[in-house]
Amino acid sequence: MSIxxxxxxxxxxxxxxxxxxxxxxxxVSKGDxxxxxxAELMVTKLKSMRADAVRVPTQKNLTGAVIKxxxxxxxxxxxxxxxxxxxxxxxxxxxxxxxxxFQASIDKRGLTGPKGIKLLLDHDWTKPAGVITTLExxxxxxxxMEAKLNLDIEYxxxxxxxxxxxxxxxFSVGFMLEDxxxxxxxxxxxxxxxxxxxxxxxxxxxxxLFPGNEAAQMQSVKAGxxxxxxMARLERLQTLxxxxxGQLA
Length: 249
Hints:
The protein is an alpha+beta fold. 31% of the residues lie in helices and 32% in strands. It is globular and about 55 Å long.
């Protein structure tokens, strides 16, 4: 397959590659197995358009999720960050926060106003960092967050500068337990015990350096709504290709 991209801006090229990948997957579904390689090539092209995001080593401490900053795609004054605020994976404290555990709290509190869910630094209630613009459950029951940092606040600007330099940081949720259960399961050689959190009253999401939930990682950070949408569409394409590969095996 030949792709002509000269003269296209980034958005046009992404759209072109996506359409080409979908067309190739349609061809695969009709029996053209050679088209799978074309689809993979288009996804590779799309991934190459993402500025390199440095993978941040995670360490166990606070419950949270890794966020990554793409320094070349986020302008120095944009302050837009996004990531998985919570997942149902087992964290380092032997806690599992179930999908939807914070939905009632999100509905009740909202994201703005005196009772709104806050964006903080390091769970410090004296250090607001900006405003959460999106907080919703997405694929796999994971809690997705988008936020705009207030770079007029000196300590926020300093943290943002560090985030860009280091390649990223983490998200961590702060909440009160409402509905939970200590679960004990029989396993080979003993018992597995953990705290299952079915519902919590979410007060804030913090930017922290050390998460407890190492599995709650994201693969990119957006520069704006269009970037986030592109990454979501890219993930869907990759899933389709993996499915097609499995059917051809």
